[in-house]
Amino acid sequence: MTQIHVSTKINGDAVEFLCEPNETLLDVLRDRLDLTGAKEGCGTGDCGACSVTVDGRLVCSCLMLGAEAEGREVTTIEGMADGEVLHPLQQKFLEHAALQCGICTPGILVAAKALLERNPDPTETETRYWLAGNLCRCTGYDKVIRAVMDAAAQMRGA
Amino acid sequence: MALDDKHEAEGRVFKIVGTRPIRPDGIDKVTGRARFGADMSAPGMLVGLILRSPHAHARIRSINIAKAEALPGVKAVVTRADFGNVSDDDLRDILHNVMAHDKALYDGHAVAAVAATSTSAARQALKLIEVDYEVLPHVIDVDEAMQPDAPVLHEGRSDETVPAGMSANIMHRFEYGHGDVEAGLAAADEVIERSFKTAATHQGYIEPHACLASMGPDGQADLWCCTQGHYMVRNTCAGILGMEVSQLKVTASEIGGGFGGKTTVFLEPVALALARKSGRPVKMVMSREEVFRASGPTSSTSIDVKIGMKRDGTITAGWAELRYQGGAFPGSPVQFGAMSCFAAYDLANVQAIGWDVVANRPKQIAYRAPGAPMGAYAVESVVDELCGKLGLDRLEVRLKNASRDGTKAAYGPRFGRIGLTAVLEAAKAHPHYTAPLGPNQGRGVACGFWFNFGGDTCVSLNVNPDGTVGVSEGNPDIGGSRAAMTMMAAEELGIPYERVRTTIADTSALGQNDVTDGSRVTFAVGLATIKAARAAITIMCARAAKIWGIDADAVVWEDGHAKPAGPNAGKFPPMSLAEIAAVATNTGGPIAGHHEVNAEGAGVSFAAHLVDAEVDPETGAVKILRYTVFQDAGKAVHPAYVEGQFQGGAVQGIGWALNEEYIYGADGRLQNPGFLDYRIPVASDLPMIDTVIIEVANPGHPYGVRGVGETSIVPPLAAVANAVSAAAGVRLTELPMSPPKVLHAIDAARG
Amino acid sequence: MRYEAPRTLESAVSLLAGEPGSAQILAGGTDLLVRLRTGIGEPDLIVDIKRIDGISAITAENGGWRVGAAVSGAEMGEHDGLKADWPGVVEATELIGSTQIQGRATMAGNLCNASPAADSVPAMVAANAVARVIGPNGTREVAVGDIATGPGKTSLAKGEIVESIFLPARAARSGDAYLRFIPRTEMDIAVVGVGVSLTLDASGTCTAARVSLGAVAATVLLVEEAAATLIGSPVDEAALERLAAACSAAAKPIDDKRGTIEFRTKVAGVLAKRAATIALERAKG
Amino acid sequence: MVRVAIWGSLRAATGGRAEVEVEAANLRELLDRLAEAYPGIQPQIDRGVSVVIDGLVYNDSWFTPVRPDSEVVLLPRIVGG
Fold this sequence. Notes:
heterotetramer, C: 2 domains, 34% helix, D: alpha+beta, Ubiquitin-like (UB roll)
């Protein structure tokens, strides 16, 4: 297959890559750009482990072609902390023990950040529904939800 | 240890154990830096893919790989012929599971594999492999597989415990118990007998199996993989491939969930075989569909239970017959179901019989307290129904009949120190138990039990020149165990948590370690960590003694310092660990402690779960309103991760109870191999999961630790079933209680 | 496989019409990429329509709303005007998949995927929505109910694109609603779906109604007998019971991994009552 | 003599006896004496056993001491997930 040249911006940096037309954005991130923070849990948009934002919109990178990223701005988990300073969500996930194995954590953090950017004061129910597309098999979600709510409170106070 | 002995940790004031520090691997995992199974790559790496049987049961007449091998980019194709013969029965079953021999035994069974320079070339190559199948009749359901005329998977594998004349699909019969069940039932005022069925479920870890293998022409090999036990992977792969164990170094990646499902091998021997044949590193990653079709789900089961009770709530007898199909090879966990199902009760008359059965499904692998949740579901459902029928309080009845210290367990031994009554008393005193319920709502309670396990364990602890400490252990960290080990090492050494770093060593660095299973890690690795720290302390005290010119036994270790034992030992200022470490070179060389042990003395644990559920009587939909877990942890080293284990187990059990199931078509093919239709709970399905940690010290561990990982999945199937049955007004006897089944039961009960 | 992202409808149509092999339109891609992944028929050409001018717009038209083919569910949910007029349609679209899916999935894609269980389609059918189809032979307006002809099959000819969907102007005292049954609270395919749209007169009597069912037949059903039970009634308990009976009678489901005939038949009626109640409340304002 | 409780399905090998007595000072001797006295137990010992001594579970640690008054129960090997 002829490869496609794509120019995009990832975590604020201009990035160019070549990809096959049937390659997903997730494949490109992981296999071509070595950004392995986004995980493939299902490849069918059912688990959310590959969550990234594209032009600010939360998407599953397994359900988007790499070629579609042309001219877009992509952010991944690798772009979440500001240098050495963790995002409040990252810090609260650590404090609340909101991860056990950690495989779903990057996707949940990216999704939670997208939530708080739209809704700085979500209810527990809103948080649970927003994150319904991010499967976590370890925690039963309890500590995840608490961490997101606590981060939201801290960010509102800041 | 006698029951009235004081535990060594009793009265000890812990400084670090029992607190909630941030896990050492935390920042890697919130920043995307942590490397999981599929996150590794190697120069010149090939992509490995597996061709899988589309048939539930078929004889493989021939496999032609010529066209696939000729495809540009294809560097190796392997079939069963590329593996040698293995004499050990268990290893041979594992080999036959990772690569089919003369028959494909289930939909998804591997029959060949390719390694190619790209995913697309590998995919294309799979299509070019020609397999000539003779399709055979198949059997999926456990009761059908036990019929004498059922299609047979393996001839001649039944062992000496199976009576003659039964189906060759029955591999083993187990029986436990004591007393006279018939006499016990005759003495009862009420006897209820019920039959139950549970569907096969999957552990549902979010990370698919993945590995990266390389092997040189000298036979030395490296393997990177996500597993619950890299020593097991090493030993198993070496056995299957005819390698010396020392030639294979296995490094465990970070692991994205396992719950028992990563306690065996699937891809690893195949990746090594492809690497051997191609001379190139080979990476293999399962798709989610492959995980469902061809890793190890649980048994589906069929269980009969009969229990007799007196009007005062005394259980006079318990009897159960459990039938578990364990997939295509022997070894379902029915024995654990039979052993554990009555464990919560002190019974004079009890019998449990288990049948291990094979069927045309993927070979089951451990799932959190393997075999126990299904047996507990059946028994706790009948106990609940008896309580209802006799108008008795469900927790009072459980307390009245509860196993206590010294009770002769239904599976044989007398219990040592156990925490069941403490767990039940805590549940009874909790406001949840008496909170009001609304219309169409019901409350369920159930008990659960798990044995817990110890096993082979090695820990090395090195005191660094700057006074920091490195701990090396050999068990993959599936839920925060590095934090727990770090805490226990720091506690023993008397230094801050931040000065200890725990690493999961590769297989070349330590001796044999059993798999991360059986809730053994905090218990067994913790025990070895404490003993390794104590060994290092002995050396550090001896070094201080040398410096002071006094006897080593005149030095004690307190708060991270060596001190003279008393006024008679001499007057010397205490030396800190860092001070002793700084001069280690001058006092005899580097300081380390290590401990290698087959850890014995694991303590059993009990839990009770309380759950409120609401049923929509018009649709059969179930909503979990409130959930509280009570469990004996022995000692909670890091309470936040103990709570996490309680919560995670409860929610997996909720999924099992309500919506998770393997659905097969008439053709024997799995119909729902994805997270869309294999429905694990999502965040919006659930309330917060409240937890109460009970601590009844395990005499077998220096701090009293019992395992906590598994017991939490035992009660929820029954607890949710009891709540839903109460809310729906009709007893539900089949899992999952999916809405069509609940609605059907409600409508049938209402005529 | 080739990937093209044309800037105009004309070039999209000519790419699709001119492809000698198989071609697929990519809008949100949430169904198409799953099919690519599972290896079920990778097409020779994918035409990404998201870069076509105006195709991602929601525009007011004749008192109603025209929703471009590339408008995502999330964008519909953020459009106050659309939500005020057609809350049921917007909610139905927002029920498709997770938040992540909402960032990509489109109503037009949901329609053209032609699943009988598509969430937005019963709501669109109840709304009497019209798809604008542009192809090599020009433009045609097609009732949304006529797009799907069976599971995975559409009446679209080679080279045709659903360019937008028009939701008509709302009469006073109108309301719509869509409800589906799923085993979990999210992330499932509808086991049964019901769309209801109705209009009341000043006295509260129903003067017009459309009722549709999803996942109970090979295509989404418009159930006129069910609508008839509401028209002329105050949408009271008796009318709702008749509605439920009509919907259950109209349902012709199958047994499959997601539900049984018995279950779908009964729940079609139950959900119809509940959806009509919501639509009624909305019509009353 | 140490009394050993035998789980149900192994009783076929002990002539139906739920409890047998053997002379043993540690776990290895206990298993050896059992297999000598009741050869039908050998296949299960080969498959793996756990031995509960006074309420604690032991796996294959040969030299675990067994006292004459110990309560010993033989079980299939316990593992987990």
